[in-house]
Design brief:
about 250 residues; alpha/beta; about 40% helix
Length: about 250
């Protein structure tokens, strides 16, 4: 497994344990004990995966996650947390982390999660290469450029996070198809844990706030009550929108 992993963890014993077992997978591993060192390392040599502790001495790991997700290039993030709050873990996922582990964790589980992330990334890459349409998608003032990962609404660039873009592209490539929250979790996030279905809701709400002219009456990403969400079909564009609560 020819992958480069950056581990941002301030506890030396845990960092060395992770390094040892990821090297057994064939990964090259770089260790950083602070957020500052980790971000500098990422700029110097982009990683294929970042293993990120939430409790760092110089900066909150959630801020680091947010900064990594603001970058143009996407990197998978596996969060490590000793916090007991479910909110912290959910927030990390909503900021764009791909998965999380709660300390103390088993080495077997760590290795399984890392393998799963790499499999998902490779599957997504292969699926994108096989997609028949890499050309821009245009629907009623909305333009999506898959190759450039760029979105415009009425000629103005809209800045989306990696997950928001992936979510929008998943919808736009299948107009009219209804996706359940579980399906979207599996397709975009790579897992189907039902307790995190509200992650889909929050991402869709943020996506709507950025691309919809009136987020309270969404036109592009529509709610199908009791089922999930769908993207407007180009041949059925009529200026309509969902009626009622868009969440």
């Amino acid at each position: 497994m020819d992958k480069h992993v950056l581990v941002i963890e301030d506890e030396p014993k845990i960092a060395r344990l992770i390094e040892l077992h990821l090297k057994d997978l064939g990964c090259s591993v770089e260790l950083a004990g602070t957020a500052g060192v980790g971000l500098a390392a990422m700029r110097a040599r982009p990683a294929d995966l970042v293993v990120l502790d939430l409790m760092l001495p110089d900066r909150d790991g959630l801020d680091v996650c947010r900064e990594l997700r603001s970058e143009k290039d996407y990197v998978p993030i596996l969060i490590l947390t000793a916090r007991s709050s479910e909110l912290d873990r959910v927030l990390g996922l909503e900021l764009g982390a791909d998965d999380y582990l709660t300390k103390p964790f088993s080495v077997r589980e760590l290795v399984a999660r890392v393998k799963a992330i790499f499999r998902r990334v490779e599957a997504l890459s292969g699926r994108e290469e096989q997609e028949p349409g890499r050309e821009p998608i245009e629907v009623e003032g909305l333009t999506i450029e898959p190759d450039k990962r760029r979105v415009e609404v009425d000629g103005k660039t809209v800045h989306l996070t990696a997950k928001e873009f992936d979510l929008l592209l998943q919808f736009a490539r299948h107009p009219g198809r209804v996706f359940t929250r579980s399906e979207l979790l599996d397709l975009v996030w790579g897992y189907t844990a039902g307790c995190y279905e509200h992650t889909v809701n929050s991402h869709i709400n943020r996506l709507r706030s950025k691309i919809e002219r009136d987020p309270s009456k969404p036109f592009y990403v529509r709610t199908v009550w009791g089922v999930g969400y769908s993207f407007v079909e180009p041949d059925r564009v009529n200026g309509g929108a969902d009626a009622g609560n868009p969440a």
